[in-house]
Amino acid sequence: MRHRRVGFIVLAVTIVRRKGPLGFIRRPPFSDHRETSGRENCIDPPVARDEFPVIPFYVDPYAAAGMIARGTDPIAQELSEAGAAYMTVRLNHQEVPQPMLARSASERVSRGREGRDAEFAAVALPLLPSIARVAAALTRDAADADDLVQDTFLQAYRNWHAFTIGTDCRRWLITICRNEFFRRRHRERRVTAVDDADLELLGAARAHIEARNAGAEEMFARLDLGPAIARAIADLDPVFRSVVVLSDIEGFGYDEIAAALVIPVGTVRSRLYRGRRKLQTALLSYAIDAGLRTPAPEPARRPKE
Amino acid sequence: MSSRDNCETIASQLWPYLDGILPDSEKDRVVSHLEECLTCASHLDFASSFLDAVHKASFPEAEFETIRARVMRALNEEGFAAQT
Question: Which of A107, A109, A256, B39 could bond to A252 as cystine, CB 3.0-4.6 Å?
Answer without folding.
Answer: A256
